[in-house]
Amino acid sequence: MKLLKTEVFRRMIKPFGQSALLVILLSHGVTAQKSISLAEARLLALAQNKKLKSSQYNIDAAKAAREGLNGADKPMVDGSIAGFYVGKPLNALLPEYGVSPSVMVKQSIYAGGKIKLGKQAADKGIEIYEEQKAVTESEVLFNVERAYWQVASVNEKIMLGRHFKTLLESLLGELTNSFDAGMIYKNDMLRVQVQLNETELNLGKANDGLVMAKLSLAQTMGMAGSTDFMLSDSVVGAFNPLASENFLNAAENRAEIRLLKKSLEANQLQEKLLKADFKPTVGLLASGFASIGPNMNFENGKNFMSSYVGLVSVSVPIWDWGQKASKVKEQAFKIRAHQTELEETKEMISLEAQNAYLQLNQSARRIHLSNASVQQAEENLRLSNDRFKAGTVTGQDVLEAQTLWQQALSSVIDAKVEYKVSEAAYKKAIGESGM
Known about the structure:
By secondary structure, the chain is of the alpha+beta class.
């Protein structure tokens, strides 16, 4: 029901985007012990996590660099102005002083395709940063789930420890009465007292562990230092094994593979850019200038002179002792290395998905066996209590039964949390960890 409410809430705020949910969550104040669901924790991480913010800044920087290339094929205009004063004996040949403004226009006519390829490379750079962010997002979301269930696990262990403490205190009270009546030896009572002391110590450690687990979750959500929140999702639900799947196709859904493919395409563009160095380049330059000073115009003796210069340049590579060719060859080997890395990464992702699948099913089997152990431990505890009241077993037998019951329940908690984490790891392995 909680998950259903969360889904309805997400659909309500969907038209306003993730930022709307973030504002709503923060406006209610996490400091007032805000109850956070797993879905809300994931959204907070997507909006506030430092690693994701850094990734977005890299994307913005790449886009800004790309915008700067829009004018690469446009005319460039530069203007300047200079003042001068000429001393003897040059002033006999030149005007003694004057001012000379000028304007220069440069236009690339043909650059061997470098401008077009440069823009394509910049576009590919943006795509690479976007895929890098997708990889980071997948890691962050997995870390959020793992941290979330760690907090849930510690919460469950604390509640179990408190219940176990209550059972021990009850048993200690009964044994104290029996000792006062002279029916048992003191060591029977001391065994329970020792276990009670250990339970108190473990509860203290668990409470400290809860603080650290919350701090870890808060940092992943972008709320570093905050512990004033509760979890609304608990370790419940269906814990069923998965049917066998084809893990060879898992790699195609992973951002890591898309990232490597984009990087390979960028390397191929770089190879084309290096090959473009073999082609000629053609440029046009036009410059207009004016000069103002006494008798500046040497043609008619006037104080003003203006003129212009036009220039067309053609540059043709002829011979560079193989420098350009060696760079192209080097880039070709880099491309082959990248292709090999891509193939190996696909294989490793397939193995990762297979391992995650096996781990998830192992967790499901562990839950089934742990639940059976809990039922047996509960029955054993019930029988031990009945026989203790009947005087056929000692307090030590009840203490052992209580300890077995506590251990069985603790194993169930561990198994269920392991399943939740394994489920998140499996979804990440097959590329389905996004929102």
